[in-house]
Amino acid sequence: MAHQFGGKFSPGQSGTASPPPAAPVAGKPRAGFRVWLLFVAPLPLLFTGFGQITAANPAGIIRDFSAFGIFILAAFLLREGLKAEAAFLARKSASRPAFPRKMTASALTGIAVALALTGGTGLAMVPGVIGLLAAGLHLFSFGLDPLSDKAPNSLDALSDRRVARAIDEAEGHIATMTQALALLKDRALQKQMAEFVTTARDMFRTVEDDPRDLAAARKYLSVYLVGARDATVKFVELYQRSQDSVARASYTGLLADLQANFKAQRQELLLDDRSDLDVEIDVLRDRLRREGVQTQ
Amino acid sequence: MSLASLKWIAFLLLFALIVTVSAGGIAGAG
Question: Across the interface, which of A45, A109, A122 has its CB nearest the CB of B28?
Answer without folding.
Answer: A122
